[in-house]
Every structure is written in C-alpha cells, then in structure tokens.
Amino acid sequence: MDMVKQGYKQTEIGVIPEDWEMFTIRDLITLLTDYDANGSFSSVAENVKSYNYPEYAWYVRSTDLENNTDLSNVKYVDKASYSFLKKTSLFGGELLFLKRGDIGNVYLFEMKTKRATLAPNLYLLKLNDISSSKYLYQYFISETGQKQLKRKNAGSTLGALYKDDVKSILIPLPPLAEQQAIATALSDADAWIESLEQLIAKKRLIKQGAMQELLTPKEDWEVKKLGEVLSHRPDYGINAPAVEFSSSLPTYIRITDIGRDGTFMNGNKVSVDSLLSEMYVLQDGDICVARTGASVGKSYFHSFLDGQYVFAGFLIRLRVDSKVLYSRFLFYLTKSKNYDNFIISNSMRSGQPGINSNELEAFIIPFPPLLEQTRIATILSDMDTELEALDNQLAKARQIKQGMMQELLTGRVRLV
C-alpha cells in the first residue's frame, strides 16, 4: 500500500490535503430543481410560449450553453411565460447539469440578458455560502469530476442523470478562500484559451476572405480542365494493409490521416510494408484527393519536409505540369467554394459518395501566369503557417490548463 504524504489524507476519491473536507452536493446546495418543477406537462404546454426573436426573457437551452452562444440563435419567452416559470428563473452564477443525453456536460450560467429562465433537460443548482460555483464548475469539468458524473450515469440504460445521483456526488472542498483562488487561476487560463480561440476564428475568416479575393478569376487568366495541366493522369494509391509505424518504413497516408485543412494528422501514424511501395511514394508538390466516403474531395499537399509517404488506395494522386501550374496554387483551388460545389455535384450517387479520376480531370481550373500563382499561394501559405502556430499555441494552453487542474483540484499545489 502506498504511503500518504504528510499533510494529506486518503479519501473515497483520492488523496487530498488534511484541511480539505469531503462533502456531497446535497451539503452544498440551497436548491436543486428543473423545468418540470413548474407544473404538469399540460399546464406547461398551456402557459409557456417560446419565440425565435427577442422577447421578455431568454429561454436557456443546453445548446445555447454548449455553443457559448452570442444570442444570435436562441429562444425567448414572453412575460407571462417567465412568470409561470418562476421556479427556474436564472440570475447568473448557477450551475447547470445536463439531465439526459451527453451526461457530463456542466455549465456555469452567465447572464447575457436582463432576464433568463431554464428550458427543459437541465438541472439548476444554487449553492450555499461554503462553496464557490466557479470552483465547482472547474471541478466538474476536470477528469475527476467527469468520472464521477459518468459513474452515476453508468447504471442507467437511458443516458439519464437523476436528482438523487446529483445530490450524492462527492466533492473535495478546500477552504472558501482557496476555492476562490483556484477558480480564479483556472478561469484566467480559460480566458487565455478563449482569446486564442477567438483570434484563430478571426484569422480563419480573414483567410477565407483572402482566398475568395485571390482565387476569383481575372480577365487575363487562362481556363483549362484539370487533366490538361497535369504531368500525367491521376493515379490511385496502393492497396496494402497498414502496419505498426516504423522509422525504417514509409509513412502510410490514408483518408483518415488528412485533416480538414489538408494537413497530415500525426495522432495515429502507421507504416506500409510492401514490395510495391516505391511506385506510390509521394513527391514534393503531389496532391492527394479522397475519392470515396463522407470526406470525398478532401485534399492533402505533400512537402518533402514531411518525409517519405506512400498513399493508400482510397486516395487519388495529382501531379501538376510545373511549366503550367504551381502545385500549391492548385491545392488552394481545392479549398475553394467552386471546388466544393464541383465535388458535391459529381459525387452524388447511390450508396457511398465517390469521385473517380475521369471526373476529377474534368474540374475547370482558372489560373494566372506562374509568377502570380506563386505569389497567391505564398500569401495563403503564410496565413496557414500563422494559423498552425496559433493552433499549436492553443493546444499548449489547453495542456497547461489540464495540468493546472490536476495539480490545483487535488491540492498537490496550494495557492493559499
């Protein structure tokens, strides 16, 4: 048996500091209620009317909270409905738990309108003065808190969380001052993450606008079919099984390895071990296109910096005639609305969507002189590089927040 460090104690949910106490949610709340508390199904149906435009009060649904809504797609209730729903009025600072469905979703309610009231499928928790709602929110979105919620749901085949389940959840609670210090530190980390998310969203919109402007054909641009600007016909990848990744073998790229932005996702690298692999090795500037499935048309640009890649059978390789077309310019054309529409119109068939090399060769390519192609592709590539750096920064910020939660919510690191 492991020895417990001096100043700490063993509890039902793990080791915590000696001056922390274990409570159930029942000990920490002044109210646990839900939409059903306002009346019977028939009386609610008769007395509550919701609207898709601004009215007296915001009718708060889990989808609003999940999307961190800006109130552009929410529902409202009128004054009479709000009065009828008085048992579940919201004022800010309440904890909201999802009752059914994706159990584990927890929200700290923030007022964004003058008045708000709870919609169905959520529990409303109001806390007493020995606990901080911000601290409990951080606890419940942590790995330990999520495990507790999932465990309560494990006994239900319906994916439901009941009031008694909520009340019986155990919470390790530091003194109030430490709760507030922990909540502030983690909230600051959340604010940093949110600011990065907003910056990335803004940069993506700027890039979309730049693509729209830069890739819109001008009067002096040439227009040809894709098949006319390739060095040879599109070819299909190797039909071979994936093997465990090895640095002595080529990396195997499959449809599932390509991200939405056309980058290779390193999360689950595999290799391919075949005598025929050499025929399917990608060269610098090759573009691979998914030819079947829900992601049909998704494209990947290969750089020699990526290493030796062999492409799989559900991908089509495009290799441009470099005297006519700059390959990265073509890659950005495969991210355009025009390309998306082409893929949709050509891949609609019975069963699974798909596109073949003949259909792909018919895609119309508008393009300027090579020098201008290079300029356009460089601008967009620089934007991608900036976005990649921000994505990495965001991933690091999330990792840091996760580490902070593990240290602060267990008392391994003390702030007070």
TrEMBL record:
InterPro entries: Restrct_endonuc_typeI_TRD, Restrct_endonuc_typeI_TRD_sf, Type-I_RS_S_subunit
Recorded coiled-coil stretches: 380-407
GO molecular function: DNA binding
Keywords: Coiled coil, DNA-binding, Restriction system
Type I restriction modification DNA specificity domain segment(s): 17-201, 219-389
Secretion signal, residue range per the UniProt entry: none
Gene3D superfamilies found in the cross-reference section: DNA methylase specificity domains (3.90.220.20)
Protein transport found in the keyword field: no
GO biological process, one term: DNA restriction-modification system
Domain of life: Bacteria
Assigned protein family: Belongs to the type-I restriction system S methylase family.
Protein name: Type I restriction enzyme, S subunit
Annotated organism of origin: Myroides marinus
